[in-house]
Amino acid sequence: MSTRESGRGPVLAIIGGGFSGAATAFHLARRLPAGAADIVVVEPREGLGYGLAYSTPDPSHRINVPASRMTLISGQDSHFADWLEQTGAIANDAEAIAANGALYPQRRVFGRYVESHLQPFLFGKTIRHLRSAVASAELSGEGYHLILADGGTLAADALVIATTHPPPALPLPLQSVIGAAGLVANPYDLERLEAIGRDDHVLVVGTGLTSADVIATLDRNGHRGRITALSRHGYRSRGHAAMLPIRSATSPASLHAAPPCCSGVSGRPSQPPRNRAKAGTRCSTPSGDKGKSSGRPCRSLSNAASCAICARCGMSIASA
Ligand SMILES: Cc1cc2nc3c(=O)[nH]c(=O)nc-3n(C[C@H](O)[C@H](O)[C@H](O)COP(=O)(O)OP(=O)(O)OC[C@H]3O[C@@H](n4cnc5c(N)ncnc54)[C@H](O)[C@@H]3O)c2cc1C
């Protein structure tokens, strides 16, 4: 059955209801005169505005830029931060406030913020949410004919594709270990992450923000074993304040540029809590002792091209 609703103006279909699709729908609804168009967001998730980034239920997954720099309305930089204050959304979350006063709420709170701004338009039916995925789209006359995964169809006059990130999948070079018992192919599969033993040695492939999420989840689950994060370039995600760059280089300067958790420098680094979570614990010493902060690089590097980073403290270490 076609989901076109007659007498409601042209159908503007938006495929994907993450931040991009939700923001597009929100701004169209705000700008167009009431009833001028039928704005339809096709999104399989329950809510609009969450997408991959802001749907994580893990409380240790936080936004990675301060709330004051995230907004639904460009030009109103404090829109999200003001919403947090007005709604008390982080009133019971002391960890959302960094040492420098910047706010880093849980990521799903940002999703809730976006969703709450769409809600009046959803109630008023200016925006419709079709909870399905688009299986295919084809040109039809001057418009588009969409076929949905649930068998439905949608005729649209204009189409916005906002599907962005594909679902997490195992990279090609790792396909040979697909199905292995200890493999967690989807970093947001919290059940699989929870099944990891407390003392297991975990290899995280990648040292970007997703690896920070994984390590924060392990930390929250009480994991105390070694974590080695492996990357081609040797960088980990960095904080926002003046931090010494951490790089897998052989220069004496970089080896002495220890981050606060390793160097014993007092004072808290001014970086997001999600980064603090991994930086604030401990690092393995060169001899492999667990639970001790070495106060210096875990191991010097002889080959910068094949390096790893101590995931707890961010120090460069040689890969085994
Ligand atoms: C883990 C992670 C954390 C991040 N944290 C931050 C942060 O803290 N601050 C920041 O500024 N940026 C952050 N980002 C960047 C973030 O990607 C963008 O801010 C933004 O969320 C991207 O939104 P999007 O709508 O383009 O993509 P997505 O959020 O991926 O949304 C795409 C949507 O399309 C839907 N979809 C896919 N295929 C179909 C289909 N065939 N039919 C219908 N729907 C479909 C999906 O279900 C999904 O909901 C983060 C990104 C990631 C991946």
Protein topology:
Layout: E1 11-15, H1 19-31, E2 38-42, H2 79-87, H3 107-123, E3 127-130, E4 134-140, E5 143-148, E6 153-156, E7 158-161, H4 190-194, E8 202-205, H5 209-220, E9 227-231, H6 252-256, H7 260-263, H8 273-279, E10 307-310, E11 316-318
Parallel strand pairs: 1-2, 1-7, 2-3, 8-9
Antiparallel strand pairs: 4-5, 5-6, 9-10, 10-11
Bound molecules: flavin-adenine dinucleotide.
Helix content: 10-25%
In the sheet with the most strands, the strands line up as 3-2-1-7
**Computed CA radius of gyration, to the nearest angstrom:** 23 Å
> Largest sheet, if any?
4 strands, parallel
Distance between the termini: 58 Å
Structurally, the number of domains stands at 2
The backbone outline, from C-alpha atoms, is globular
User: What is the residue-averaged pLDDT?
Assistant: 79
Strand percentage: 15-25%
Explain how this protein is built.
This protein has 320 residues and is an alpha/beta fold. It contains 8 helices and 11 strands. The protein is globular. The protein has helices at 19-31, 79-87, 107-123, 190-194, 209-220, 252-256, 260-263, 273-279; strands at residues 11-15, 38-42, 127-130, 134-140, 143-148, 153-156, 158-161, 202-205, 227-231, 307-310, 316-318. The strands form 3 sheets. The protein has a 4-stranded parallel sheet. The protein folds into 2 domains: 11-61 and 106-161, 3-Layer(bba) Sandwich (FAD/NAD(P)-binding domain), CATH 3.50.50; 172-318, no CATH class. Helix content is 22%, strand content 16%. Bound molecules: flavin-adenine dinucleotide. Residues 15-21, 42-45, 51-53, 63-65, 70, 107, 133-134, 162-165, 209-210 line the site of flavin-adenine dinucleotide. The site of flavin-adenine dinucleotide has 27 residues, from helix 1 and helix 5.
